[in-house]
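Quick start: what a row looks like.
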Amino acid sequence: MASGRRAVALDPRTVAALRAWRKTQLAERLAWGEGWTDSCLVFTREDGTAVHPEWFSDTFDRRTKAAGLPRIRLHDLRHTHASLGLAAGVPVKVMTERLGHSTSALTADVDQHVTPGARGARGRNRRRAGVRPVTRSE
């Protein structure tokens, strides 16, 4: 499913937050009436128009700085997610589908930032981080 649309597994807290946001958005849509712009986007301005993508990056930068975290671009979280997933034993094929990459080779080349030397310590690091391998039944 290497396209702009794909299924994403979400935890219950995220689902609840998205449902709450949807209720807010529906109320705004009613309040704006004919002035509402149906952009078919999840996150919009109060009038339904698109939020400029840079706003998300700027907000992320401000919040990570305020939290005292190291500077990282919002887009870099994709690579971090992929690298941690691969290091935790998530199959390359699964990560390829999650990321929308066209091939598993691309995912392995671009996102597997685990060096051969680090692979020996991978199990110890997984246990310390509370990460467990994903099984076929999950």
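That is the whole record. The CA atoms of residues 79 and 111 lie 5 Å apart. The helical segments are 12-32, 53-66, 76-87, 92-99, 104-111, 116-119, 122-129.
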